[in-house]
User: What shape does this take?
Amino acid sequence: MSDPILSVTGLQVNYGRVEAVRDVSFEVPVGSLVTLVGANGAGKTSVLNAVSGLLRPRQGVITFEGTDVTKWPAHRLVKAGLVQVPEGREILGTLTVAENLTLGGWHRSNSAMHAKVAEVYERFPVLFERRKLHAGALSGGEQQMLAIARALIAEPKILLLDEPSMGLAPKIVDEVFRVIEEIRQTGTTVVLVEQNARRALAAADYGYVLETGEVSHSGPAHELLADEKVIEAYLGLD
Assistant: This one.
């Protein structure tokens, strides 16, 4: 792999006395799409939350663009270009679509923020059509698009996506993965956490399979898709 934009080494995450992540290490090359897959409870979301500054790891080192960011808070990471779309979308349902998007640019100048909002409206026409509606009135797929669009307002260098297909109809899942590929093609590095292992690996360059808080398999995504042990253990997850 090429030089990583993100490197995670020996990550351990605890919730009190419960060990959610034991010893996870992985690298994300610039411009790539890397996926973390595994069953529920494998530690995927805990890894992402530690990387994005929402959880303080018990042990390990997180390096972003060559800088140790292990102890950085989430807002500082966002300013640096590391942005997460959380599991469950976490949009603000009582605010309008436009207001949700504006919040994505909280750290930017008004002119830069408004220019980026106009750009995401071009990419997501449905959000422009619904810009005056409360976000809670959107369909599940539209809410997911809003969550992704809000993250793009921050102009991420690396975008962390946590279970973007969760709870969505197959046709909408297709659209979400189309958008992810489009984002990746613009040069944004993507880390995808996804329970739909087959779909995630088909979209990715490189994959890591998590099992009970540890990496059990890793390699180029196309090789993992062809690995009989991975197929038997994990590719029924979709």
